[in-house]
Specification:
Order of helices and strands: HHHHHEEHEHEHEEHEHEE
Bound molecules: glutamine
Shape: elongated
Number of strands: 9
Oligomer: single chain
Largest sheet: 7 strands, mixed
Strand content: 15-25%
Helix content: 25-40%
């Protein structure tokens, strides 16, 4: 069977299994197995699919049909143009989170400074920022040791050296202060039906779910961050599409200034900022 037909059949199977991007999933999985990019698959679609690789591909398609995220099946996801290793110990980086990176870069016009990324997971936000601001010292922390190991491996593989990753339960292992603190904490309510759909079913709940209707960690970070921010320093938080008002109110109540929310790529208010007095 040629590559094109193999992809067509896999896409059909994934579509029936409920994938919202069946053809893309099939292409990414086959590209991974063959060690080629998607352009190669279009160019050589009439070539016969090699038998050994075909069996591996079919196994991945079967796992994908059961719902396993593509990023876990191939162990990789691109974020901010960086190829990041992924594992079931961490959240899969989302395109929406690039909004948080954009905001962090706007808040960091200086050539040098210190940024902290809380709950770094794969290291996505810290690494994206560090790659754009080589003069900054970037710290990423996570409570989960496996996440910290993964983030360190990602930094090494990408050769990004102005970043360090530590095990810390939010601020517990930190003593210094920062110019910018960012976080994409868990913010989904336990009862949210969204948790039963798609990739999130396979992701660690510790990275997704928070008490108080999803707001517990956001509130805790807002209340603790001032002790770790330099005068004039910024806190930037990702949150759920319906949480921006509550996050803004909490920031104002905690004494932050210049509080404002920003939209993600899908038009949702996704990131909210606040600043310490200068
Ligand atoms: N944005 C993610 C989702 O809705 C959740 C990420 C998070 O809880 N930090 O699937």
């Amino acid at each position: 069977m040629d590559i094109d037909r193999l992809l067509g059949r896999a896409a059909e199977r994934l579509s029936k299994a409920g994938s919202t991007s069946p053809r893309l999933d099939a292409e990414v999985l086959l590209g991974h197995v063959l060690g080629v990019d998607r352009t190669w698959l279009y160019t050589w679609g009439d070539r016969a699919a090699p038998v050994y690789e075909r069996a591996r591909f079919e196994a991945l398609v079967a796992a994908r049909a059961e719902g396993h995220p593509v990023a876990y099946l191939i162990g990789e996801r691109e974020f901010w143009g960086l190829a990041l290793s992924t594992s079931p110990h961490t959240l899969i980086p989302r395109p929406d989170t690039e909004t948080l990176v954009e905001m962090a870069l706007k808040l960091a016009p200086a050539a040098e400074g210190r940024l902290l990324d809380l709950g770094t997971g794969t290291g996505a936000i810290a690494l994206a920022f560090a790659s754009e601001r080589p003069g900054w010292q970037v710290t990423g922390i996570d409570r989960i040791e496996d996440a910290v190991s993964l983030a360190i491996a990602n930094a090494e593989r990408l050769n990004i050296t102005n970043v360090r990753f530590l095990v810390s339960d939010w601020f517990s292992a930190l003593a210094e202060s920062f110019d910018v603190i960012v976080a994409n904490p868990p913010y989904i309510a336990e009862s949210d039906p969204h948790l039963m759909l798609g990739d999130v079913r396979f992701e660690p709940l510790s990275a997704l779910v928070a008490g108080e209707g999803g707001l517990a960690d956001l509130r805790r970070l807002i209340d603790s961050a001032p002790r770790y921010l330099r005068p004039g320093g910024w806190l930037a938080l990702e949150h759920g599409h319906d949480q921006s008002e509550q996050v803004r109110e909490r920031l104002k109540a905690a004494g932050y200034r210049e509080v404002a929310s920003h939209y993600d790529l899908s038009g949702q208010q996704r990131v909210t900022l606040g600043r310490m007095a200068g």
